[in-house]
Amino acid sequence: MAPEMEPGGMDAWARTAERIRAELPTMKAIHKKIALYILEDPQCVTFSTIQSLGESIGVSEATIVRFTRTLGFTGFTDFKREVQESIKLQLNPYVKIALGELHDLAKPTQIKKLFQYELENLKKTHHDLEEKVVEDIVEATRRADRIFMCGFGVSQYLVKMYEFLFSSNTDKPFVAITGSVADYIPRLSLLRKGDVLLVMTMPPYSREASQVAEFARARQGRIFLITDSPRCPVYAMAEGTILIANTSLLFTNSYVGHVAVLQTIMNMLLLSNRRQAVKKLKHLGDLEVQGYKDLCSQEPT
Predict the structure, then answer these.
(1) What is the pLDDT of residues 190-209, one digit of tens each?
(2) Where are the alpha helices (DSSP H) in the chain?
(3) What does the alpha-carbon distance between residue 173 and residue 52 come to, in Å, rounded to a whole number?
(4) Helices 274-297 and 256-272, axial angle in degrees (round to 10)
(5) Quick one: which H or E segment has residue 174?
(6) Do β-strands 222-227 and 174-177 pair in parallel, antiparallel, or remain unpaired?
(7) Nearest-angstrom CA–CA distance, 178 and 256
(8) What is the mean pLDDT of residues 128-157?
(9) pTM of the prediction?
(10) What are phi and psi of 65, to 5 degrees?
(11) Cα–Cα distance between 46 and 8 in angstroms, integer?
């Protein structure tokens, strides 16, 4: 049976998806987690059982049923039928310009287009940012004894950047989880109940990030995820997720959103304990001044 169409060309699933997006700001956190996952890839409903979908998102089957009923469906089967009737072909929402096509443009135009896409990534990341998740990360960080952050591939350099920011502005222990299994297992073994793990991962999602998150979950650590899509394997394990816009004219990941989010989290941490932050910065400033004095007093060799 063909999907019901309105005069404007919007089928039943498109109307439902539009409603879900409109209701996102007022949804319960657990329902929002389901909604974001389905909006990212509606075909996950088409090809999944309720059991497998629940496992992928990290929620119970009953929660999925309740979510579909808030949308006016009798249950998951009714909801799935609508998506199946409407989704015939999954289209990539971001049409990438072929490398050759971009190459043929004038250099100033290339720069303008590439820069514009990064600005759009930043705008979308800001638009979709859930302030509550940032607040939860900041509060969990304040309460935890240790902060762990993992990233592999290019993401490891973002971990190093945050490690510098964090260590420069706080006295709380920070443990970077990067490199090979042999490199990070000794550090990861320090994780205890209540410690915070920030997972940074982008396509192709590293198996190591999933392994680290599984370890933290077994130790009852608090897991937060920074990634580009609910399809990330760690999504189901995370207490909260910040989604980063990752559109590119070429075939590389974008990291402008990551830097902005990490800087925002760091600044919120500083604001949460302004007196300690000022004291820490003054101490570092005094050490820096002393360091320059020591260098200037040394005899040239």
Answers:
(1) 999 999 999 999 888 889 99
(2) 12-23, 29-40, 43-46, 50-57, 61-70, 76-86, 99-103, 107-128, 131-143, 155-169, 181-188, 207-218, 256-272, 274-297
(3) 38
(4) 110
(5) strand 174-177
(6) unpaired
(7) 21
(8) 94
(9) 0.73
(10) -60, -45
(11) 25
